[in-house]
Amino acid sequence: MTDGLIFDVDGTLWDSTPVVEEAWNQALLDFGIHGVTITADRLKGLFGLPMMEIIDDILPDEPVEKKEKLAPFCFRYEHEYLAKTPGVVYPELEETLQRLSEKYPLFIVSNCQAGYIELFLEKTGFAPYFKDHVCPGDTDLLKADNIRLIAKRHALKTPVYIGDTQMDANACRDAGVPIVFAAYGFGTVEKPDYVIEKPKDLCGLFL
User: Fold this and answer.
1) Burial of residue 179, with CB atoms counted within 10 A of its CB: 0-12 exposed, 13-18 middle, 19 or more buried
2) Of 57, 84, 111, which residue sits at a domain end?
3) Last residue of a domain, one of 84, 99, 118
4) Closest to 147 (Cα-Cα) out of 193, 136, 50
């Protein structure tokens, strides 16, 4: 039996890609980069990667120095756009989190920039359901190490991670925790430990 549930954000708790598409395309234009367009579908294939790897994929031919300056520019636009138009929360998620939080401590670990998880919690009102959260923007660690960090910080012996991509699964295997594959999300996972078709299925697994 698990003693804690750790969640990914994008593709697991909400879908922010249409808003991020708009934000990043405007950021690119205002930064002076033309002829590059980012779509929500492309972002779904990239979310889960560290943010600089996403920038590298979108702009492979730009010099490193330019990409390093662009990244915080994109992050600022993303934050401003999501503050006005939040991502779409998956159906029955709040009821599911409420029920799960009555039995387990809930956490978030995501490969995002600092402030993104806080924005998600603020705009959804879900902060009361979660005990803690970490991301590379806070710790300079990637997902597997941040999973370990949450487990150590809260003395978790048998945590479970809920995510939607093979990158999530790889991090879980590196960290030595099972993965629940959120099949409604952005990606696929080879041989997950558990599969859910909608958030509410977590109640059937853990309650």
Assistant:
1) buried
2) 84
3) 84
4) 136
| Owner of token pair 């430990």 | 193
pLDDT at 64 over 90: no
**Tens of pLDDT, residues 175-190:** 999 999 999 999 999 9
pLDDT value, residue 28:
92
Residue (of 199, 201, 194) closest to 177 by Cα position = 194
Domain co-membership, 135 together with 181: yes
For residue 31, the domain's CATH number is 1.10.150
Same domain, 42 and 107: no
Domain match, 109 and 21 both: no
Within 10 angstroms of residue 3's Cβ, the number of other Cβ atoms is 14
Cα separation, 187 vs 181, whole angstroms = 9
* Under 8 Å between Cβ of 138 and 114: yes
* Domain span at 21: 17-84
Tokens coding 35: 């002829």
What DSSP string runs through 25-58?
HHHHHHHT--S----HHHHHHHBTB-HHHHHHHH
pTM (two decimals): 0.93
Residue 107 and residue 143 share a domain: yes
Q: Which has the minimum average pLDDT: 66-70, 76-80, 134-138, 196-200? A: 66-70
3-state class (DSSP) for residue 159:
strand
